[in-house]
Amino acid sequence: MKTKKIVFFPAFKRVVPADFENWLENMAAEGWHIERVRQWSSIIMIFKKGKSKKYRFVYDLRAIAGKDYISTYRQFGWENLGRMASVYIWRMEYDGKRPEAFTDNDSIAGRDKRTIAAVSVSFSLFLLAALTMSIAAIFFSGTLSANDRTQLIIGAVFFIVLAVLLGTVMLYIHKRGRQ
Fold it and tell me: Measuring CA to CA, which residue among 6, 162, 11, 5 is closest to residue 84?
């Protein structure tokens, strides 16, 4: 029986905060537990096999956490598993009703806005890279070798695909928040 499970790129496969939370909760229900979240956890997460548990996870993006941020969560019984870049991951074991860290629509909307803002930075950079490569391929095609033009076109298409995916994520989070 396996006692360790390694998952690659978990945060990239589940970019929407609620999807990431639900995935972690399903893993815990199957007996796979993450003990600590680190900077590289968005690229690789290591789970250990244990008893099935009912955990509520919270994905909270905070570029700058206030001085009372961590203590406030802890006062309400949340366990800080760590953070990946600016995302704090919290969990709480429960039996009855599923606990909520965001108790009102304004706090959920705030988290969604912070997530959209963070994703929009990457979206803008990928779109800018795609445009720059496209312009270079068009306006400098006479000075470029066929191989260089091909590489620019492939790069531009790659960045356009990434920008479209991130744009889709932003729209999904925005639509979900308005429901």
Answer: 11
* pTM more than 0.70: yes
Q: How many helices (H) and strands (E) does the chain have?
A: 5, 6
Angle, CA 160 vertex, CA 157 and CA 161 arms, to 5°: 85
* Tokens found for residue 174: 């925005």
d(CA 74, CA 101) in angstroms, rounded, equals 11
Q: What is the CA radius of gyration of the chain?
A: 20
Contact 89, 37 (CB under 8 A): yes
How many angstroms separate the CA atoms of 165 and 10, rounded?
16
On the question of pLDDT at 1 being above 90, the answer is no
d(CA 4, CA 109): 36
